[in-house]
Amino acid sequence: MNRIVECVPNVSEGRRPETIRCLTEAIESVETAVVLGTHLDVDHNRSVITFVAPPDEIVEAAVRVVALASKRIDLRQHTGQHPRLGATDVLPFVPVRGVTMEECVSLAHHAGERIARELSIPVYFYERAALRPDRVNLENVRRRGFEELRHQIGIDPERAPDAGERRIHETAGAIAVGARPFLIAFNVNLRTADISVAREIARVVRARDGGLASVKALGFELKSRGLVQVSMNLVNYEETGLTEVFAAIEKRARSVGVEIESTEIVGLIPETALDRNGPYFPQCSRQVQKGVCLCQPHNYENFSTVTISNTSTSAIRRLSPRRRWPSPPISLAASWPKPSWLSWTTSWPWRYCRLR
């Protein structure tokens, strides 16, 4: 049986595509690692990179991308809407096929120890990899981000890292390394520049304030587009799905006279979570910024990649793993999966969809 792990580094750079391309190349310098998608956000100044590899190679690829990010990104010069701890902010490992969550916890710890030892970046373990109960939730680890941690790491025992010295890396900051199940990163963009509207709706829908179960939410400004955004993580989409959270946001927005501009799916999501007939999907398919999501069913037998764009091209192709791959869609900053990697995933039928 093929053993596959997903890794999703979130890096603090969303305005220089050439930097993200270099990072994806660093990942794919490990022969069996394949970048499946990238999502760049100018306002957040953040990018989400998704790649997969066998468990015996995933840590090497992860360490390489963190190492290059520490050289290419200077957090002292970084500005953006999204909170962050480091040049590589978070590095979660996700079990995909033939790998347990416990193994991903071990991979996260191994990667964290290497990052601390080889790169001198302090490491905090979160989610299933957390070594302390108060660090299970990422928001508790991140708090007020790099700027606060820079002053507290050396004097506050509660902010001491799980691996590495109690000293921030001068340019790369710190990093949160974890293991978790699949989650859905879902953004709803509102047709207003009033940030208080997004923050109020985020408060209404997020679980910690009595909103929808398994929903984390924040309100952000999208200054480049004159909009605001409710940015969410659905940490258990079976408990609260895209349709339910979209309906709650739409209802609240309408009550204050605000329309929904568009929606975004960031990164890769389970196929069972995606409803093409859902009310959120038309807004998603018309988004100006392109997004990529890998959809997979529970049994991990079939993977599909959905590239959502504003192009007029519509195509669905069944691709045999042994066939020559076509040119990648423009939204993929990385090279297309390599035939050498596909030799050990021959049981995967792939589907590439481009939606109008």
Architecture overview:
- With 356 residues, the protein is α+β, with helices and mostly antiparallel strands.
- It folds into two domains: 4-179, Formiminotransferase, N-terminal subdomain (Formiminotransferase-cyclodeaminase, Chain B, domain 1); 184-355, Alpha-Beta Plaits (2-Layer Sandwich).
- Helices cover 27% and strands 26% of the residues.
- It has nine helices and 15 strands.
- The protein has helices spanning 17-28, 55-72, 101-119, 138-142, 145-152, 195-205, 242-255, 281-285, 339-342, and strands at 4-7, 10-11, 34-41, 46-53, 88-97, 123-127, 175-179, 184-190, 215-222, 227-234, 260-266, 291-295, 303-308, 315-319, 350-355.
- The strands form three sheets. Strands 1, 2, 3, 4, 5, 6 and 7 form a seven-stranded mixed β-sheet that branches. The chain has a four-stranded antiparallel β-sheet with strand order 9-10-8-11. Strands 12-13-15-14 form a four-stranded mixed β-sheet, with no helix packed on it.
- Helix 1 (17-28) packs antiparallel against helix 2, helix 2 runs parallel beside helix 3 and helix 6 crosses helix 7.
- The longest helix has 19 residues, at 101-119.
- The protein is globular and about 55 Å long.
- The protein starts with a strand and ends with a strand.
- 47% of the residues are buried.
- Residues 285-356 have low confidence and may be disordered.
